[in-house]
Structure formats: structure tokens, C-alpha cells
């Protein structure tokens, strides 16, 4: 029994499978500091900007880590991924002129639940 359990744990780790409760790599694998840098996908039109929230749907929460890969992949795949995220976030494609990937820097405020944006930079753009 013990060897079987250890074998399953080793297999899950080697295959990089996120099979909670066997592993919790995403929960505990990043260092938490008072500074935060992350990527946000922003749907842009002439009159407004809308953040494509990673946590709005299960699809978004499980794939938002792919934002960083957007600048490096082919145009067709970029468009497919962006259109899927917009659809999952219930943002009509007809309402969006372009999508920007922005690097956002934040610092923790006095209250640990408060984050203050200190910098925002566009790092990639796709015209739809």
C-alpha cells in the first residue's frame, strides 16, 4: 500500500499532473512578496477597455497562464486563443477592435488585501 501511494505521487510529479489532493504545486509553488508582476489581457474598442478576467470561468482560470506565450506563437493560434478567451469571458467579439497583453506591476498596501498598481505596460497586441 505504501509503495503504491509513493509510486502514484512520483508518477504525478514526473508527469506534471495537477491531481489535487495528490499535488498542490500551483497553490504553493510561488513566492509571495510585497511586489507583484502579472499579465492581463485587455479587450479594447474605441470607447472602452475591458479586462478579460482569468477567474470568470473555469476555462479562463485553467488557461490564463498561457497569456505569456501569446507573443511567441503563430498568428492563427494567437487569434484562436484570444477568441476563445473572449467567448469564455462573454465579451462579444464584435465589440472588440484589438486585444492587448499588459504587464502590470503592483505593490501591497498597508492592508495585505489591498494592491496598488504602480506600472502598466503593453507588451503585445492583436488587431481583430
Account of the 3D structure:
The chain is α+β, with helices and mostly antiparallel strands. Strand 3 (98-108) and strand 4 (115-127) form a beta hairpin. It has a four-stranded antiparallel sheet. The protein folds into two domains: 1-30, no CATH class; 34-127, no CATH class. The termini are far apart. The chain has helices at residues 2-14, 25-28, 58-63, 75-88, and strands spanning 35-44, 49-52, 98-108, 115-127. The radius of gyration is 18 Å and the shape is globular.
Would you kindly provide a brief summary of this structure?
This protein has 128 residues and is an alpha+beta fold. It contains 4 helices and 4 strands, in the order H-H-E-E-H-H-E-E.
In order across it, which strands form the biggest sheet?
2-1-3-4
Write the element-wise H/E pattern from the N-terminal end onward. Answer: HHEEHHEE
Structural class: alpha+beta
Whole-number tally of structural domains = 2
Which word captures the global form? globular
Major sheet characteristics: 4 strands, antiparallel
| Overall residue-averaged pLDDT value | 86
Chain-wise SSE layout:
Elements: H1 2-14, H2 25-28, E1 35-44, E2 49-52, H3 58-63, H4 75-88, E3 98-108, E4 115-127
Antiparallel strand pairs: 1-2, 1-3, 3-4
Task: Using brief descriptors, characterize the structure shown.
single chain; 128 residues; alpha+beta; 2 domains; 4 helices; 30% strand
Amino acid at each position: 500500500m505504501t509503495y503504491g501511494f509513493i509510486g502514484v505521487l512520483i508518477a504525478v510529479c514526473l508527469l506534471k499532473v495537477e491531481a489535487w489532493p495528490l499535488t498542490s504545486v500551483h497553490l504553493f509553488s510561488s513566492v509571495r512578496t510585497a511586489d507583484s508582476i502579472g499579465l492581463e489581457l485587455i479587450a479594447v474598442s474605441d470607447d472602452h477597455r475591458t479586462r478579460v478576467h482569468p477567474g470568470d470561468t473555469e476555462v479562463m482560470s485553467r488557461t490564463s497562464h498561457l497569456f505569456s506565450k501569446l507573443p511567441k506563437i503563430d498568428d492563427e493560434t494567437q487569434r484562436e486563443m484570444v477568441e476563445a478567451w473572449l467567448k469564455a469571458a462573454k465579451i462579444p467579439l464584435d465589440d472588440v477592435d484589438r486585444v492587448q497583453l499588459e504587464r502590470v506591476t503592483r505593490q501591497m498596501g498597508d492592508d495585505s488585501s489591498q494592491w496598488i498598481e504602480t506600472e502598466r505596460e503593453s507588451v503585445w497586441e492583436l488587431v481583430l
